[in-house]
């Protein structure tokens, strides 16, 4: 497939304009105007793993503990914690000054309810939950974990970046983990402005005047989360050339995921900064629905994987310069201790004819394949269109549906057959940090109905994950288990790794405090 080009759009960047909100000069100086990666349709960071929802959650919620730039878990809402001598009781104490947006004080019972809801959906805590006897409030400022056995990974789970444990008021956190919440009361640096939320167009947050940050420098996602701007406003702009013009002309301040084709033009603008703000590469995947034909057949999934050449996908997203991307034909983040290609031979076939023969041998019978591509998310859309091209060349009965990202996020929850609104294959991305270890590797989890969308059921993968929790402290055992996990995942092939690319961000030069972090956050950012 030819890469999508924007020559006409880029040529008009210097002259074209967009409809900007009517802000006075003073209000504009106090507002950080952002073009987000995608449309915000769900506000619940427990119900969905969509990164755009997580970015919203980092604005409005706080965490008990968080991870710094070096990967160490530090206190955040907690003043600290004590571990009993037998390591079976962990007692957390909340720091002073924690208030919810509605003026209520954050209490230990709020933390307990939030942990209980979160751990029903978090892949990491699902593995550790068998070790947990109880989570209970001791008093208003202290809560504790009582454990059946020592669980040193508990802190890593609570402070993780992939699926953070955000704290909500108890009355909200009591909502079933599989039901979306609409109430956005948190205790974080910003308040969500419900009356300004128009999905598909705009979302806004106001500075939380009650927020008391930690009295220490920000470090990764840990430290002092200081709201240095009065308002954060996201404007959904689906056309990349229009987004580039908005940044170039100063109508927007920050573009989270600029299209790679337009980066050279942005770099030539002396008023624009283009830098790699995210600390890790962005890893793409193609995800099969293993519940419905034809991809309930592992042989058919493997046949499709045989036709994949990661390099084609990465060029479609990030261009021809190999410095901007890298092939990674295993399930763990490349250049990390667990990275390996044990059993990854299928991803090295890269041959459409052999894949076509394997598809016939697997018994494909012209079942419809519904692939949903997010037209408003250029990077994931490019990955989706590459797979669509492969499926057509394989002779599969493809229905390609173009939708916005918010619709895809909602529809991927459906387990129905394709004729009743279901799906066959979707694409998404994740940071490299999130794929480095088995315990929080969302795509690797294969526990059936409780797995991530696609719902693979591979008991051996789950057994190996549990074994890693027990033995992962030993480097040799950790490596052995990682190789076995890669082999089992490649054999079951419930998702296809598509390699990684580097995703810079762009912002106006008068934007301050754009520090590097494992996720896109807007605290500590301001305007000069």
Automatic annotation (TrEMBL):
Keyword Signal: yes
Keywords: Signal
InterPro entries: Peptide/Ni-bd, SBP_5, SBP_5_dom, TAT_signal
Residues of the signal peptide: none
Residues annotated as domain Solute-binding protein family: 72-416
Primary localisation category: periplasm
Subcellular location: Periplasm
UniProt similarity note: Belongs to the bacterial solute-binding protein 5 family.
Name of this protein: ABC transporter substrate-binding protein
Originating organism: Roseomonas fluvialis
Phylogenetic lineage: Bacteria, Pseudomonadati, Pseudomonadota, Alphaproteobacteria, Acetobacterales
